[in-house]
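anyone else get weird line breaks when pasting these?? whatever heres mine. first is seq + tokens for prot A
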Amino acid sequence: MLTELFAPVVDENGRRAFSAKNSRGKLKDWEVRSRVIGLLNDAVVNSTAVRAFLQEPSTQLQPAERIAVTTYLQEREREIGRLRRGAGRPWRPVAGVTFARRLARTIAAR
């Protein structure tokens, strides 16, 4: 799963999988993808919190405030779509239900 993310940098034994000659490009690609996935995580967490805030029964907002918060949420959701497209192939395995279930089982087993 996440090994695909690190595949350009590390082989299956955890050793560097590239030569010094071509390492700069592969490392840069890995850094960019890692950053995109980090930004994607931030956007998902942020939009989840804002959505929960809007759905909370005790949230009392003026109409203009509700519009502003809803607009902000819509912008974050567009950003999530853009970042998912930018993350590409490494993101797909960790975005699915199978990964979520496996992660939950792993956490519950501890």
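and prot B, same format (seq, then tokens)
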Amino acid sequence: MGVSDGSKVTRVGLSPSNINASNSDPQMAYEILLAHVDQVLKSPCHSRESMPLFEETWALLQEARARFPATQSAAKVEPAQKTAD
């Protein structure tokens, strides 16, 4: 998927097979995976994804974090806040 900020287009994968691809923005991928993990952990037990699927997602999150340049810190990444409708 391409996301434009008006001056440039940033590409990020959205599926497990391409979210950590070399042409996928590492920070955006990390934020997407972090939001997904947050949603899973906050969902009711009966509607959560299976443990094997969650472990796969967690591994993708760790891989995305490892792709950050050494100068960036995960502490600086804050998931987008939901807005009230």
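btw re prot B: The beta strands are 2-4, 9-11. The chain is about 40% helix and 5% strand.
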